[in-house]
Amino acid sequence: MKTILLMVAVSAFAQQAPPPPPPQSYPVATTDDTGYESIFDGKTLNGWEGDPKYWRVENGTLVGEVTPETLLKYNTFIIWRGGVTKDFDLKVEYRITEGGNSGINYRSVELPGIKHVLKGYQADIDGRNRYTGQNYEERGRTFNAMRGQITRVPPGKKAEVIGSVGDTAALAAFIKNGDWNEYHLIGRGNMLTHILNGHVMSVVVDDDPENRKMEGLLGVQVHVGPPMKVEYRNFRLKRLP
What we know:
The protein has one domain (41-239): Jelly Rolls (Sandwich), CATH 2.60.120.560. Helices cover 8% and strands 46% of the residues. It is built from two helices and 17 strands. The strands form two sheets. Strands 1, 3, 4, 6, 11, 12, 13, 14, 15 and 17 form a ten-stranded mixed β-sheet that branches. It is globular and about 80 Å long. The model has no long low-confidence stretch (mean pLDDT 94).
């Protein structure tokens, strides 16, 4: 009798065993641009608004240039008028002169009464790569994350460093001076990631509900300072629900 009960118990246990796990799956490299829309036609400034003194289309690129005759008193932007950036991916290539200073603003707002001036998150760009890759908030909280940092911004306080994605000088080595570089910007809720040439440069977790922005305008900048030139091409935007 005990033998029969033991066999029944063993049989019941066997029936309750889970199925074998599926085969292990690993991440793969991808160049898939499904869901991205081109927001610059490479021929005209259709869909963009900026001061023509500083912005033009040339050889398929969006060019921002400051000359000795057009020095700026404040930073100015060309703004994409095709919608807003909320939860999104943006891929765009840029090239900048050695003394240049620029940036890609997203989830930004226009200053009232002043044309072509944005306030908000910026993926920084400069020709000497002191700041390229960082998350800077134009006319706002300023440095949210330097290159190499993972930060959290508490309510009403300065950003706090909570981790690292690498040494700032080592990351700068991935930036191509005087050549084309590709930015990949990712906004998901309150998490903002800047990737440059395939390498994560900075990550911000913005837990400051009063000062953060969850949606807003997209634009690119020419900066106060000496004469400079920046070029952008291949703007591809994926907007998520």
